Amino acid sequence: MKNRVFAGIAVVLAFFAVVGCEMPEEKDTDVKVTGVTLDDTTLTMTVGEEKTLTVTIKPSNATNKSVDWSSSNNDVASVSKGKVTAKTAGTATITVKTKDGGKTTNCLVTVNAAGNKDFSGTITISPTTATVGETLTANYSGSEAVSYQWNKDSSVLTGKTS
Fold first, then answer.
1. Averaged pLDDT score across all residues of the chain
2. Tens digit of each residue's pLDDT (9 = 90 or more) over 2-41
3. Cis status, amide bond into 24, omega within 30 of 0
């Protein structure tokens, strides 16, 4: 009887030793990307302008949120880390592609040529009075490059950005 008790205890201990030594299954904690969106799907810009697109990866807890940016026409609009730069009039498609899963979305960019626009600033003319043949100097202080136009029928000096 004593041998049977020891044998029973040995079987139980062997069972727990085997079960206790098994490695638990590793769970896959890698959360895959299921989609990608941009805050704008169309942009209208003027040559020289910059705008930043914001990308959203789904799900928000995806493990690898890395993306690649590209432009269908770098001469019209280039992109770097979501910052779009308008270079010349035309259209370009900005594409963002996830490194995980290759999910893509686009933004159509239309770039318009730069035109004249009103400016703000201060123009100082010196001397304040002049006779025929005397030179007047106009100085502008503001944030834009300006070309000046004198209207001989008026005492107004107007300017537009160039």
1. 78
2. 555 555 565 555 555 555 555 555 566 899 999 999 999 9
3. no
Strands 104-112 and 42-46, sheet pairing: parallel
Closest by CA position to 76, among listed 92, 60, 61, 65: 92
The residues facing 51 across adjacent strands are 84
Domain boundaries of the chain, sorted by first residue: 35-112, 121-161
Asked if CATH classification 2.60.40.1080 holds for the domain at 35-112, the reply, yes or no, is: yes
d(CA 154, CA 157): 8
51 within 8 A of 30, measured Cβ to Cβ: no
Which among 71, 76, 159 is positioned nearest to 113, based on CA atoms? 76
The tokens describing 98, both together, are 């996830």
CA proximity to 96, closest of 39, 45, 37: 37
